[in-house]
Amino acid sequence: MSYWRTRIERKTTVATRALLPKMLATGKSAHRTFVSRSMLSKLGCCYRLVIVAIVFSSVLRCAEAQTNPLTLTQQLQQEPPEQLVVEARESGNIVRGAILFHQGNINCAKCHQSASEKDRLAPILGKLGKDVADASLVESILDPSKSISKGFETLNVLTAGGRVISGLVVSQDDNMVVLRDTQNIDKLYRVPQANIEQTIPGRVSVMPSGLADQLSGRQQFLDLLRYVIDVKERGSAKATTQVQAAPVRELTSEMKGLVLIQARNCAACHESSLMESLPVAHQGPNLKWSAQRLSPQYLARFISDPHQTKPGTNMPSLMGQIDQAGRTEAAEAIVHFLLSISGARVPEEAAEVDHDSIESGRSLFHSVGCVACHSPRDEDAVEQPRSDSVRMDSVPMGELRTKYSSQALVAFLEDPHSARPSGRMPNMQLTHREASVLASYLLQNDEMLTAVMGKPWAVDAKLANKGQQLFAKLNCAECHAGIVDSNSASDRFVKLSDVHNSKGCLSNEPGNWPDFGLSEVETKNIRAALSNGIGVLDSQQTIDFTLASLRCTACHSRDNLGGVSEERHEHFQTTNLNLGEQGRIPPPLTGVGAKLNPKWMRDVLVNGRSIRPYMKTRMPKYGEKNIEHLVELFQAADQLSETKFATAHDLNESRKTGLNLVGDQGLNCAACHTYQYKLSDTMPAVDLTEMAQRLKKDWFYQYMLAPQKFSPNTVMPSYWPGGVALRSDIAGDPEDQVESIWQYLLEGRQARAPAGVIKEPLEIVVADEARVLRRQYPEIGKRGIGVGYPGGVNLAYDAQQMRLATIWKGEFVDPAAAWYGQGSGDVRPMGPAIQLAKGPELIDATKPIITDNRRPSTHQFKGYFLDKQRRPTMRYAFGSIDVEDYFREFKDDTTGQIQLRRRVSLTSPEELAQLRFRLAQSGRVEKETGDGYRIGKGLTIKVVSGQTPKIADGDLLYLPLKLVPQQTQEIVIEYLWE
């Protein structure tokens, strides 16, 4: 063949030969084009035969590609990089490319942003220089490991203990190797040289392979490439704003002590002008609420020995000088007193165990924000062992199952401020259903719940009278209001400023004083606050104090104080990965007073208003009197530098320009931002029509001109980097354009819809052949394969979990969200969809059933091939079992309707007996007359290949399977709509 190739090269031009790869890659039309009369006329007979042979082999390759379709990366790798560069410069949309560059699902900016030298994971594109050819950018995107830039190679370290640690080298000397985690730039691995067995240079780039496969198609790749080329050409000075990481800040020991002094309510006994000057005084729990709902037995144990009953509680032990029997007797008397004044107890009933509710509650607990303050828990709601830092920084919950009935815990979760008015437990704005499933998860034990309610307590008047006297004697009223009149304990104790820092409560010794169970660190911090004498707090200190007291810093950072800890990072989740970190991590509070208008800020702080529905962690409510002072403090403390505003001489013309800029023919803000609660195709970023109501004009100006300066991890691109507009074809300097956008936004909900918001729906029509569309589908993700069959039956197959995910009747799909957007929207089924259970259908019956979104490690998808009517047969492997999964339409003789039939073929080289194939798992499965099984409403499933299905737990329909070596077993299933 090399001989003939040489002869062909002599007989054809370079331009003709350059077209060959592209033509062969584009299908039959390319073959016809290549073997044209004009070209054949240049070649002799022998050469023509060679050309025909080449074309024939390419046809075979195309047929093969129908069986295993090429990914976008593979398709692009077949094209000359130089040609892609030419097309990017000619037809690439630089604005859409900028959006893609910052978009969360590929998030190029995360690694290529201009951070400090030590923190970067990838080269700054603006510093690449002219020596780096544009074609090499194409190769780096499509095959990042082909050539790794110097200084960004990874190192694999094998420790003496057998652990493998990989990362970028930060430093390396004779004593220590320091590596930076490539997934979290803040995480460093310090490995002593003495503990290293071997080091091996990494050959795989930090940049992920297959990045182009996250795009919707070739045009998006050209858009992205166009923007990357532009950033390189502009240079680092103009490309992005330099963002330097500031050091992490902590409260001083004195401020930490002050927070503890308030949490322990020391000022209830020790008068303090400083504590009185603070915006909010601490208030103990509402004991009438507790007496009506909590287990009396638990209350008695807690009052007798609070630190044993609930380690870490703020409640001090007040009876340390009394023996155990005496404490028990006194505590029971106080409980009798509380029950006597609190009115009738709330009726209680044991709750039934609902496994679905428990699982829903577990998911909610670990996503809605509970684990920002409380330690994560396992499936049995048992607190998980964690590092010392997590344990010390977690708010204890104690043994809930001996404290609450289900009804009581639901009531507390729905309205925690009725029980704890100081707002330390915020209102998470849970629905009744959410509060119920959380309670089911945290309690989940019928026997324990019955024991909690136990024998009803009959109030003993004599004991209640004794309890009242003890309540007053122990000064309980100083913290718990509304029970008895306070005796003004502060008149009988020294002032807080005169407290001896090694006696009484701070002595850590038992005596005739409250025992708070303070740790050494806590004692040290309180002593520092008392000894160093903190004066009246300024506005910044008061903000820090409030944020720490209410634990706002568990979610938010302000001037590098606080923020989500590394150990809790995984529990902050989003419904839209395109938003990146910005979509799941609560926003920083740095400069928030300069950003938000006071009215809006108050609505957020007091009412828990949220504009980020994609963020699963919620903004809770802390109670108006506990937090409203922050509005004035933020507004006074945060100021911006002077802003230069442009002047809008003609408001109507300016708004019109703003409308055009926001639309898809301008800067395409509508591609990402919601408009009047109508979600964009790409991501549900904050609503355009609320911006002028939320934001101050000077902040908006400065942010638009340099978004990375205000939010280094933002997915918002800079449209005027270095003061130069990305779109040189749009008139006006940056300030004029920003002013036009602002004037448009001032119209709020009266503003006209920008171009690109309202789109006509699309439809992929199915005629005589099946239609296949590989895209993201609801409840599946990006490895969905939709198939529309003649006759109006359709399905979506999950190639990640090897399962039938969705079926529906009617029209096929509307791909508008995926095609119009940035490749991230869901393809929408155009009929009433029936969602089937998650997790692989074929499993080992001895293993737990997977019902989440994880990719099963035991299964491997192997593509699909098409029949003559283009119906796909899915192929996958489960261990040693090869599976072929084929669907087709058929006419039901009984009803005359077109229905769906499925044939699953399984072949194994060995005998396997403990197998199970799931047919359905829903709320209810019912056996019908004959051989059908009713699944929910409107669907019947039949197995017509002779096997007998079984029902488990009322909701699982499955086939037990036994495979014989080298014999194919078939399962034929019919899905019948009413």
From TrEMBL:
<protein>
    <submittedName>
        <fullName>Cytochrome c</fullName>
    </submittedName>
</protein>
<dbReference type="GO" id="GO:0046872">
    <property type="term" value="F:metal ion binding"/>
</dbReference>
<dbReference type="Pfam" id="PF00034">
    <property type="entry name" value="Cytochrom_C"/>
</dbReference>
<keyword id="KW-0408">Iron</keyword>
<dbReference type="InterPro" id="IPR036280">
    <property type="entry name" value="Multihaem_cyt_sf"/>
</dbReference>
<feature type="domain" description="Cytochrome c">
    <location>
        <begin position="356"/>
        <end position="446"/>
    </location>
</feature>
<dbReference type="InterPro" id="IPR009056">
    <property type="entry name" value="Cyt_c-like_dom"/>
</dbReference>
<dbReference type="GO" id="GO:0009055">
    <property type="term" value="F:electron transfer activity"/>
</dbReference>
<keyword id="KW-0479">Metal-binding</keyword>
<feature type="domain" description="Cytochrome c">
    <location>
        <begin position="528"/>
        <end position="638"/>
    </location>
</feature>
<keyword id="KW-0349">Heme</keyword>
<feature type="domain" description="Cytochrome c">
    <location>
        <begin position="92"/>
        <end position="186"/>
    </location>
</feature>
<dbReference type="GO" id="GO:0020037">
    <property type="term" value="F:heme binding"/>
</dbReference>
<feature type="domain" description="Cytochrome c">
    <location>
        <begin position="252"/>
        <end position="342"/>
    </location>
</feature>
<dbReference type="InterPro" id="IPR036909">
    <property type="entry name" value="Cyt_c-like_dom_sf"/>
</dbReference>
